[in-house]
C-alpha cells in the first residue's frame, strides 16, 4: 500500500482554530442495512427502492455496508484514520416504528451502543436526527407536505434526545431539507418520488417547523450546554453575465437554494423576493401564527454541506427570457471545470465564496463543514487499494478553500469528509462511490483509499502544530 505525503500542509492548516474538528460523516439508510431487523419498519426509501426504474441497477439498501452488524469494526476504522468526530444519522423507523408510539428499545439500543463505542475510542459523536428515512406510514398520512409530520418529528427527536443527551454534545435536526423537499416532492428523483411543486414548498416550511419544534424541545430538556443546529446543502450561484436576466436567474437560485432556509432560521422571515416569486406561480408558503418564532429558535452551529457551485442564465437557448407559462427562464450553463463521476463541476473557489457570504449575511453563526467530498470511478489494485488521485486533489483544494475563508474571517470550526464508506448513493444505487474507504460489496471488506491517508496526515499535522 502506498501513500502520498501532504503537499503544502503547513499552509493548509495555517490559521485553523486549535480545536478544529476533523471527522467523517455517514447516514443510516446508506450504510446500515438490516432494514427488517429488531423491529424496524419500512421507510420511504425502502418503498422507493421497490419502484421499477427508480434506483440505478435496481439496487436496494437492504444490506448496504452491513454497518448494523459491523459497527464496532467501523468505529475502530474511524479511530485508525485519526478522526476525532463522527457524524451519523439515526433511522427514525428503527427507533420509532411506523413513526408513532413509544420508543423501540432494540432499535434505540443500536445507537446507544454506537455512542458508547465512539466515546470509548475517544471519538466525539455527532447525531443527525433526520437524514431522509421518513417512516412510510407518515408518508401515507401526507408526508412532509402535511403539517402534522413536523410535530411527529419533534416527538421522535425527543425519544432519541432523552436517551443520548447525557453523552452526545452536538445535535443536527435535519440533513439537507432542500433534498427532502425538492428532490422528494418537486422533482420525484428521491423518495417518495412525487412531482408536485406546491407540495414541495409546503414540505420546505414543515421541515423547518419540525426543526424549530425539536430544537425548542431539546433546548428545554438539555442537561447542560449542548450544540444544536441544522445542516444545509448550499452552493454559490453565479450569474452567467451582468445582464439582468442572468443576475435574476442567479438571485432566484440563491433564494431557493440558500436564503429560503437561512433567512427564516436566522432572521425569522422568508426572503421577500422569493415569497413574491412563488406568488407569481400561485404558491403561498403555509405559515401559521408562531411558526417563524419557532423556526428561528437560536442555533449553535450551522452544518454546511458543499459539493459544487453553478452558473445560471435567464436566457433560453433560443434567446427568450420567459417560458410557455410566462415565467422567467432559469437554467444552468457550464462553468467549464473538470467534473466528478456525479457530473458535478469542481469549483473550490465557490466554496470560499459561499462560506464568506454566509458569514456576511448571517453574522455570528458558527459553521462546521458537515459534508464535503466527491465520487470518482475508483480502480482498485490487486490488493483492493485505490490510489484515488482525483478525490485526494478534491479534498486538498476544498480544504484550502475552507482555510482561505477562515483566514478572511469566517467562523468555521471543523471539517467532516463525506463519506467514511462507499455506500448506497440513493437513486444512483451502488454505482457512485464517495467513500474514503473502499467497500467490497461482495465481501464487505473495508480498505482505506489514498484520500483517507491524506486526510489522516493533514489532521495529524494540525494536531502537532496547534
TrEMBL record:
<keyword id="KW-0136">Cellulose degradation</keyword>
<dbReference type="InterPro" id="IPR017853">
    <property type="entry name" value="GH"/>
</dbReference>
<feature type="binding site">
    <location>
        <position position="30"/>
    </location>
    <ligand>
        <name>substrate</name>
    </ligand>
</feature>
<dbReference type="GO" id="GO:0030245">
    <property type="term" value="P:cellulose catabolic process"/>
</dbReference>
<keyword id="KW-0119">Carbohydrate metabolism</keyword>
<feature type="binding site">
    <location>
        <position position="307"/>
    </location>
    <ligand>
        <name>substrate</name>
    </ligand>
</feature>
<feature type="active site" description="Proton donor">
    <location>
        <position position="176"/>
    </location>
</feature>
<keyword id="KW-0624">Polysaccharide degradation</keyword>
<keyword id="KW-0326">Glycosidase</keyword>
<dbReference type="GO" id="GO:0008422">
    <property type="term" value="F:beta-glucosidase activity"/>
</dbReference>
<dbReference type="InterPro" id="IPR001360">
    <property type="entry name" value="Glyco_hydro_1"/>
</dbReference>
<dbReference type="Pfam" id="PF00232">
    <property type="entry name" value="Glyco_hydro_1"/>
</dbReference>
<dbReference type="InterPro" id="IPR017736">
    <property type="entry name" value="Glyco_hydro_1_beta-glucosidase"/>
</dbReference>
<feature type="binding site">
    <location>
        <position position="131"/>
    </location>
    <ligand>
        <name>substrate</name>
    </ligand>
</feature>
<feature type="binding site">
    <location>
        <begin position="425"/>
        <end position="426"/>
    </location>
    <ligand>
        <name>substrate</name>
    </ligand>
</feature>
<protein>
    <recommendedName>
        <fullName>Beta-glucosidase</fullName>
        <ecNumber>3.2.1.21</ecNumber>
    </recommendedName>
</protein>
<feature type="active site" description="Nucleophile">
    <location>
        <position position="371"/>
    </location>
</feature>
<feature type="binding site">
    <location>
        <position position="175"/>
    </location>
    <ligand>
        <name>substrate</name>
    </ligand>
</feature>
<comment type="similarity">
    <text>Belongs to the glycosyl hydrolase 1 family.</text>
</comment>
<feature type="binding site">
    <location>
        <position position="418"/>
    </location>
    <ligand>
        <name>substrate</name>
    </ligand>
</feature>
<dbReference type="InterPro" id="IPR033132">
    <property type="entry name" value="GH_1_N_CS"/>
</dbReference>
<dbReference type="GO" id="GO:0005829">
    <property type="term" value="C:cytosol"/>
</dbReference>
<keyword id="KW-0378">Hydrolase</keyword>
Amino acid at each position: 500500500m502506498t501513500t502520498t505525503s501532504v503537499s503544502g500542509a503547513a499552509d493548509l492548516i495555517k490559521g485553523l482554530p486549535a480545536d478544529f474538528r476533523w471527522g467523517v460523516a455517514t447516514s443510516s439508510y446508506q450504510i446500515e442495512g438490516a432494514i427488517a431487523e429488531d423491529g424496524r419498519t419500512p421507510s420511504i426509501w425502502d418503498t422507493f427502492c421497490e419502484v421499477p426504474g427508480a434506483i440505478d441497477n435496481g439496487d436496494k439498501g437492504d444490506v448496504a455496508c452491513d454497518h448494523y452488524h459491523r459497527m464496532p469494526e467501523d468505529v475502530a476504522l474511524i479511530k485508525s484514520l485519526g478522526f476525532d468526530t463522527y457524524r451519523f444519522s439515526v433511522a427514525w423507523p428503527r427507533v420509532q416504528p411506523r413513526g408513532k408510539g413509544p420508543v423501540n428499545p432494540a432499535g434505540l439500543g443500536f445507537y446507544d451502543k454506537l455512542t458508547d463505542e465512539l466515546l470509548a475510542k475517544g471519538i466525539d459523536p455527532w447525531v443527525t436526527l433526520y437524514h431522509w428515512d421518513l417512516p412510510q406510514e407518515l408518508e401515507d398520512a401526507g408526508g412532509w407536505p402535511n403539517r402534522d409530520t413536523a410535530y411527529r418529528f419533534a416527538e421522535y427527536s425527543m425519544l432519541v434526545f432523552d436517551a443520548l443527551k447525557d453523552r452526545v454534545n452536538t445535535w443536527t435536526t435535519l440533513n439537507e431539507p432542500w433534498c427532502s423537499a425538492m428532490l422528494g416532492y418537486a422533482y420525484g428523483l428521491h423518495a417518495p418520488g412525487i412531482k408536485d411543486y406546491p407540495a414541495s414548498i409546503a414540505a420546505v416550511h414543515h421541515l423547518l417547523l419540525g426543526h424549530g419544534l425539536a430544537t425548542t424541545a431539546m433546548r428545554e430538556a438539555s442537561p447542560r450546554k449542548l450544540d444544536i443546529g441544522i445542516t444545509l446543502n448550499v452552493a454559490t450561484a453565479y450569474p452567467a453575465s451582468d445582464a439582468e436576466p442572468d443576475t435574476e436567474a442567479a438571485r432566484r437560485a440563491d433564494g431557493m437554494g440558500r436564503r429560503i432556509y437561512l433567512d427564516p432560521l436566522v432572521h425569522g422571515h422568508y426572503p421577500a423576493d422569493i415569497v413574491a416569486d412563488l406568488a407569481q406561480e400561485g404558491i403561498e408558503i403555509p405559515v401559521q401564527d408562531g411558526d417563524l418564532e419557532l423556526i428561528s429558535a437560536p442555533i449553535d452551529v450551522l452544518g454546511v454541506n458543499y459539493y459544487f457551485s453553478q452558473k445560471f442564465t435567464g436566457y433560453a437557448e433560443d434567446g427568450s427570457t420567459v417560458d410557455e407559462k410566462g415565467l422567467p427562464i432559469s437554467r444552468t450553463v457550464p462553468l467549464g471545470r473538470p467534473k466528478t463521476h456525479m457530473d458535478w463541476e469542481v469549483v473550490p473557489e465557490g466554496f470560499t465564496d459561499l462560506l464568506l457570504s454566509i458569514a456576511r449575511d448571517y453574522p455570528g453563526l458558527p459553521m462546521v463543514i458537515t459534508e464535503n467530498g466527491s465520487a470518482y470511478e475508483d480502480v482498485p489494485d490487486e490488493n483492493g487499494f485505490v490510489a484515488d488521485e482525483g478525490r485526494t486533489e478534491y479534498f486538498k483544494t476544498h480544504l484550502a478553500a475552507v482555510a482561505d475563508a477562515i483566514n478572511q474571517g469566517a467562523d468555521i470550526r471543523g471539517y467532516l469528509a463525506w463519506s467514511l464508506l462507499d455506500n448506497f448513493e440513493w437513486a444512483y444505487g451502488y454505482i457512485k462511490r464517495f467513500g474514503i474507504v473502499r467497500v467490497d460489496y461482495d465481501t464487505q471488506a473495508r480498505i482505506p483509499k489514498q484520500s483517507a491517508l491524506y486526510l489522516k496526515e493533514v489532521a495529524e499535522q494540525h494536531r502537532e502544530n496547534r
